[in-house]
Each structure stands twice: as C-alpha cells, then as structure tokens.
Design brief:
Elements (H helix, E strand, L loop, with lengths): L6 E3 L8 H7 L3 E15 L6 E16 L4 H11 L12 E10 L2 E10 L1 H10 L8 H5 L1
Parallel strand pairs: 1-5
Antiparallel strand pairs: 1-3, 2-3, 4-5
Protein name: Gamma-glutamylcyclotransferase
Organism: Streptomyces formicae
Pfam families: GGACT (PF06094)
C-alpha cells in the first residue's frame, strides 16, 4: 500500500516536538491541524500510541512535498517500527483513516498501535485525557 495520501501525526512528529524537524523538515509542503475520530490516545515511553476507540485524537495532517512521498513513507515506517501489514514485529500499523480538518474529511495514513500493543494498552495503559499529547506532554 503506497497510495500517496497525507499522514496524520499526533505525537513526536507534531510541530514543536523533537522528531518534527528531524524527520519532516524539507519533506512536506503542507501541515494543518486535524482530528482523528474513533481513536483513543495512550501514554508511551516518550511518545504516545493511538488505538481504535471511542474518542478523538488531536494532531496535524502532513502532506509530503512533491517527489518526497516515497522517501517520507520509508522514513516514517522506520521511525514507527512498521514492517508490513500485520507483521508481528510491528510496533505500529500504518492504516488509512478519515481525519477531520477545517476543509472537511480527508483520507490519511495513520500509525495506530499494533494489535499486541493495543491489547496491552487497553488492559493496563494510561489514557491521555482529551486525546492531545502535546497538551499532556508540555
């Protein structure tokens, strides 16, 4: 799945967070506030995890600069420890979800916690109230 959709980011890749400049600088042409309905946000070890659930996660919709989508996808897959769909080594799964922006609904790639991680978070994880990691971590 290599469709050139934008990415919804909700943790360390958001503007002002430590991975934003490291991984996104020079590779994007647009970033805008967005929300992911149908998800909950959990605390992780220095970064958050989004998990399917009855809530909304706040983040940004990031559009790859022309000619940079393949590179950006590879960089983000590596950062998020995504190998392939349903691979047991995945920390996150890269999936297509609908996010909401000021201009309406947009299909985007989202990194959700892989099922083995999501199950552990649902059982023993700490929810981030309001689904906004930047507010919770700052």
């Amino acid at each position: 799945m290599t469709e050139e959709l934008p990415f919804f980011v909700y943790g360390t890749l958001r503007p002002g967070e430590h991975n934003h400049d490291l991984f996104l600088r020079g590779r994007t042409c647009a970033e805008e506030p967005a929300r992911l309905p149908g998800a909950l946000l959990y605390e992780g070890p220095g970064y958050p995890y989004a998990v399917e659930g009855d809530g909304t996660v706040t983040g940004e919709l990031v559009t790859a600069a022309p000619g940079h989508h393949r590179e950006l996808t590879a960089v983000l897959d590596h950062l998020e420890e995504y190998v392939a769909p349903a691979d047991p080594r995945n920390l996150y799964e890269r999936v297509v979800r609908t996010v909401r922006t000021e201009r309406g609904a947009v299909a985007a790639w989202v990194y959700l916690a892989a099922e083995h991680t999501a199950a552990e978070l649902r059982a023993r994880g700490t929810l981030i109230p309001g689904g906004n990691w930047s507010t919770a971590s700052g």
